[in-house]
Amino acid sequence: MAVGINGDQAQEINVDVGATYVFRQLGSPADWEQLSYAKATNSDQSSAGIGGRELSFGNSLDMSDDGQVLAVGAYRDNSDATGINGDQVNEDARLSGAVFVY
Predict the structure, then answer these.
(1) What is the pLDDT of residue 37?
(2) CB under 8 Å, gap of 24 or more: what pairs does 2-8 form?
(3) Residue 41: per-residue pLDDT
(4) What is the chain's pLDDT, residue by residue, as a tens digit (102 residues)?
(5) How many whole angstroms separate alpha carbon 21 and alpha carbon 51?
(6) Rounded distance, CA 48 to CA 101, Å?
(7) What is the predicted pLDDT for the residue at 2?
(8) Chain center to CA of 84
(9) Which of 10, 85, 82, 95 lies closest to 42, judged by CA?
C-alpha cells in the first residue's frame, strides 16, 4: 500500500490524496532519475469511506538546500492533530491542513 516513502506506486486504493516524487538531475539537462516517491502517512483510504480523504498532499513543498529534509503540505487534511505525531487519522477539523516532514 502506498503510504509514506517508496510505497507501491501502482496500487489503486489510496487515490486522490496526492503524492510527491523526488528526482535528481544526472549529466545532461534532459537526464533525470527518480529517487523516491512519497504519500502522506495518513493516506490509507481503505477505511476512509466514500470520497476518501482527498488530502491534496504535495500541493506545496520545499526541500532543504542539502536535500536531506522534505516538507510537504496537504491543505485539505482534516485532522485536528497538533504538534508532532498527533492523531493523523481523525476527521475532526475540516480542511485544517497539515505539513509532513521527511
Answers:
(1) 87
(2) 2/37, 2/39, 2/43, 3/39, 3/40, 3/41, 3/42, 3/43, 3/44, 4/38, 4/39, 4/41, 5/36, 5/37, 5/38, 5/102, 6/36, 6/37, 6/38, 7/37, 7/39
(3) 78
(4) 566 677 676 766 656 778 888 898 998 888 999 988 888 877 765 555 545 567 788 889 999 999 889 999 988 888 888 888 877 777 788 888 889 888
(5) 24
(6) 23
(7) 62
(8) 16
(9) 85
Beta strands of the chain (E only): which ranges?
A: 4-5, 20-25, 32-39, 57-63, 70-74, 98-101
**Contact call for residues 102 and 5 (beta carbons, < 8 A):** yes
Residue type, 97: G
pTM (two decimals): 0.73
SS3 at position 81: coil
- Cα distance between residue 34 and residue 15, in whole Å: 20
Strands lying side by side in the sheet with 20-25? 4-5, 32-39, 20-25
